[in-house]
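Following up on my earlier thread - several people asked me to post the actual chain instead of describing it. Fair enough. Here it is, all 451 residues.
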Amino acid sequence: MRKTKIVGTVGPVSQDKAILRQLILSGVNVVRNNFSHGDHEEHLGRFRTVQELNAEMGTYVGTMLDTKGPEIRTHNFLNGSVYIKQGKQVIISMKEVLGTEDKFSISYPSLFNDVEVGSSILIDDGYLSLLVIEKDKENQELITVAKNSHMIKNRRGVNVPNTVLHMPFLSEKDILDIHLACDYDYDYIAASFTRRADDVLAIRQILNSRGKDYIQIIAKIENQEGYDNVDEIIAVADGIMVARGDLGVEVFAEDLPHMQKSIVHKCQQRGKLVIVATQMLESMQNNPRPTRAEVSDVANAIYEGTDATMLSGEMAAGRYPIESVEYMAKISERSQAHVDHRIFAQNALYEGDNLLDAISFSAVQAAMHYNVKAIIAYGYKATDNLSKYRSIAPIIGVVDSYHKATSLSLYYGVFPVIGIEQLERKLKEFGVVKGDTILVVRKYLIEFINY
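Reply from S.P.:
Thanks for posting it. Predicted structure:
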């Protein structure tokens, strides 16, 4: 069975209930709602669809609210898009205008104060690079020249590498969205453009004020500042998303593989969740098969020991959403056969300084040495703690509520159930037969039993 989880972004091509059912059957473990787009009514419709499908299918698919965060986007363009040629002088206005090839506007007016002449402004994942050659203070406009040619469409992302932006981390929209997550008990909040520990704590404060401290915060590392502060961010977050889209624009592309590997390793050391995201099967937005490079990319994330990989546009807006999930699931399952779980368990010993850690580590090691077919963990905490040691045997987490079950949907190697009847079904699903050895973990007790 596949131990690495799949986060799938729901969007226009995947929000239909029948399609979403197929996506879950194909391997989606957590459904992500990107709150950079759409309204609350639209997102709640998708959230309720997941709940309905869980009830109908007997699954525990989790839900993730991904905040808009302190991002910058272009405003709209005449006819929806414009083509900007290399060498063209382009004005970036701080006041909203309908964009043309000569002038367009952005969503962050204070960029005028933050950016300096000589800085590069990157549009649409860096596909258009503009060099700032002059600042027009009277009109609050940046005069730029295009370093390459590119077609840009409405509301494309804007990045400014090596520039400190003085944007507040949480906008009014973000705060309203976080309260929505509290109202409906989302499992995870993905915090976009996290730059420092205080950003995570600002969200934590809202959750605590609502009595929703169990909602887990996944900090998205998307710029150099976030990467530089990743240790302090890991310390206060429940997990990290290596958001390679914006991060790959903000830093040199050749540095990205090492940064990904470093973040995954640090999360393993501290027993925190980690997701590798963005462009994993990007070509499948238009093609029915991934490229060989994409297959290797997903496989390498598995070899690194990530908890989950993520699909964005492939599942939200692509032509082959179901096939994308199927391929990611197949690549993940095939790759995990070549993973050395002993190394992952040793990596996680960094924080192994309490009794529960010692019990969990011992259980995973025992399962490996004695060919245990499954580990049964009673309780949420025991289950989540076992996961960080990357057991070669599946971990069946027996919990007492729906929300605890869906909250475990992101954890490596964990398969949540509620009650003995579901436990028995899951054991049979994993091929456990009479006489097989299974290992049971109850708080501080480890017990071997013959099934």
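Residues 72-159 form a domain with the M1 Pyruvate Kinase; Domain 3 fold (CATH 2.40.33.10). That should answer part of your original question.
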